[in-house]
Amino acid sequence: MEVHSLPVNYLPVIFQMIVALAFVVVTMFFTHKLGPTRKTKDKLTTFESGIEVIGNARTPISIKYFLVAILFVLFDVEVIFMYPWAVNFKDLGQQGMIEMFIFMGTLLLGFIYVIKKGALDWD
Predict the structure, then answer these.
(1) How far is it, in rounded angstroms, from Cα 85 to Cα 78?
(2) Strand, coil or helix: what is 67?
(3) Which residues touch 86 (CB under 8 Å, ≥6 apart)?
(4) Alpha helices of 5-118 — where are they, by DSSP H?
(5) Cβ distance 49 to 71 under 8 Å?
(6) Tens digits of per-residue pLDDT, 18-34?
(7) What is the model's pLDDT at position 54?
(8) CA within 20 to 30 Å of 66's CA: 15, 25, 37, 106, which one?
(9) Going by C-beta distance under 8 Å and a sequence separation of 6 or more, which residues neighbour residue 111?
(10) Tens digit of pLDDT for each residue in 45-88?
């Protein structure tokens, strides 16, 4: 049985996108027109996590902060790849198990490399 994809089949999706966009536009319009517009010195100051800004925004930051963040994202994404494997574990059989061991071994080698390079040392 062939399934034909016609443009009329996409009408519900297009309608939902139009409704969502209209909601955003109408909400933004009414909040800006009806809401209070008192501009005070405190409201116009730069604000970062409840802490007053001290110094220039362009002060150098240690690259280790960014390296740890990138490594966290990298290993987090790698763990996400394990979910489909876990769901289909029985169907994949022994070959799937071997492939996952290779995948986890590669991850472990990368992690050992990062530790040996001292990328996670904060000193």
Answers:
(1) 12
(2) helix
(3) none
(4) 11-34, 41-44, 63-80, 82-87, 89-117
(5) no
(6) 999 999 999 999 998 98
(7) 74
(8) 106
(9) 75
(10) 776 666 666 777 787 777 777 888 888 888 888 888 888 888 88
CA 90 to chain CA mean position, Å: 30
The CB-side HSE value for 78 (13 A sphere, CA atoms) comes to 16
The distance from CA 37 to its chain's CA centroid, rounded to whole angstroms, is 33
Tokens 């909040």 locate to: 31
CA–CA gap between residue 104 and residue 37 (Å, rounded): 55
Task: Compute the mean pLDDT over every residue in the chain, rounded to the nearest whole number.
Answer: 84
Q: What is the pTM of this model?
A: 0.46
Cβ-based neighbours of 107, under 8 Å, separated by 6 or more: 75, 78
Residue whose C-alpha is closest to residue 84's, from 72, 67, 95, 96: 96
Give which of 123, 73, 83 is closest to 103, Cα–Cα.
83
